[in-house]
Write the structure tokens for this entry.
Amino acid sequence: MVGRRMAMNPQEMSVVSSGEGRLHVRVTEEFKVSEASRLLEEVRRCAEAAGAKEVLIDLRDYTRKFTVIQRLQMAVAVVAKLRGFRMAAVFSENSFDPQRLGQTMANNRGGNVATFTDLAEAEAWLMAARRASEEANWAKPV
């Protein structure tokens, strides 16, 4: 599955890695926000096939700024397609919203989402969330 191009037009997306409960994909071309739902549906299918509970989407090649309406559309699509997954999205400095409006909207709608500009920070957030979940499960009485 690694390196596999997903069947998305005009978007181009590839699986960077898959395993240990995580799917890491990279969007390699800019896409229309109206196409986000289909793109995220493909991500969901790949995550389910890989048995992943975490999704890391690298959008650093997307350099356009999102409008507030586009952020809302993306947040709704993320929740509709990736609810039940922990998702970290890494944006380019230009497209990143430091107020994290899209992240807040997605989380308010039931998502488990965090946004970053640094890949290592996104990976650390996913790992910390995984550890917290494992600790909570370990502490449950049998």
User: Anything to note?
Assistant: Confidence is low (pLDDT under 50) at residues 1-11. The chain has one domain: 13-139. The first strand starts at residue 13 and ends at 19.
